[in-house]
Amino acid sequence: MESLDLNNPTVLGAIAAVAALILIGIIIGFVRARKKRSALEAPAPAPPEPEALQEERPKIEVPEAREATAEPTQPIQIEDLVPGPAPEPLPTLIPEPTVVPPPRPPADLSAFRSGLRSTRGNLISRLAGVFRKDRELDASILDEVEEVLITADVGVHTTQRILQALRAKLSNGELGSAEDAWEAIREESRSILASSGGGLAIDHKPTVILVVGVNGVGKTTTIGKLASRFDRQNKSFLLAAGDTFRAAAVTQLEVWGRRVGCEVVKGKDRADPGSVIFDAIQKAKDENLDIVIADTAGRLHTKVPLMDELKKLGRTVEKALGRPADHVLLVLDATTGQNAIQQAQLFKDALPVSGIVLTKLDGTAKGGVILGIVDRHEVPVEFIGVGERVEDLKAFDTESFLEALFEAPEDLESSAEAANAS
Q1: 309 in Cβ contact with 299 (< 8 Å)
Q2: In terms of Cα–Cα distance, which of 192, 191, 199 is closest to 107?
Q3: pTM score
Q4: For the chain, what is the largest distance between any 2 Cα atoms, rounded to a whole number of angstroms?
Q5: Which residue of 58, 159, 180, 357 lies most exposed, with the fewest beta carbons within 10 A?
Q6: Interval 328-360: pLDDT, tens
């Protein structure tokens, strides 16, 4: 084997190259071993979180660090936070004004006083003798009050109701003076009449008002006065002459019709009153009128066949109208006193009486019957007649009635002195 010549430059260069390659290989191997060992010593990565936990965990944003400056902190302005011009201030909300209904016009108190003059003279003057200012109020006065109320045609049932209220206040020590006794009677009477004076609602076209009552109570006259009242209210209406058994009733109704300028539907003498009222309702429906006021034949409330005819008339109205009559007004004569209470019961048995018209109140001392009628039958009083004139048919007003009826004697004297002075 030929030996290497170490003095040969070519040989020396080859040896140096091989040595360099060997050194590079050693270095590369060392680096790879170092990386592998570092990878083995590093901690294992955490497993990924479930999606539900990632959604629930809030993201925390770390603001970038700002270099501290020596300048003082400036207050934050609205313009710095909201781009553009500042928003306009919200308008101040002004609440809408509360609509207050107009006050109810006062009733004609003077007319009530005039109409109840006879009743007041009978009732109040006698009660004034019972409630004397120098008399101690005790249980002995109740018998005297009972006698006064019954003779004023208040009625036994209603008298006992008022006495029970007085007895309760007396036992509770609430009747210390005559004024307390007057007020106790007014209070109980106000409770009895609470449903009266509501007025006739005109809710349908046509609204049918059936007027009933015995002979001579003033039905036809009441119808004429009602017609004048509706005419002043600019209502359209017609009259039905259902009293075909009395020729004068038809003639009287025609006079009222000409006076108020409305039509009167009538039939032949002795015609069926039901057919007349049926035709009147049909005509009112065709002409789109507001009201039909139907007269009926006066009848004795003690005659059963006549009351049966009244029931038939009610069925005829329901057939023509598609519903019962809107209002059934029972006209009663105040001068009949307790008999009016009996009439009310029998007419209620025939028809659903919805309201009472009490006529001729100015000519009787029995005006206290109003309390008895309403208390016994729970039918409100809608109108009272206090004179012959058209305007003397007054809408009933409870407070005016009580003030006119239960005025204490000293109040009457004051009213008289004021009237004389004027």
Answers
A1: yes
A2: 199
A3: 0.70
A4: 175
A5: 58
A6: 999 999 988 888 988 999 899 889 999 999 999
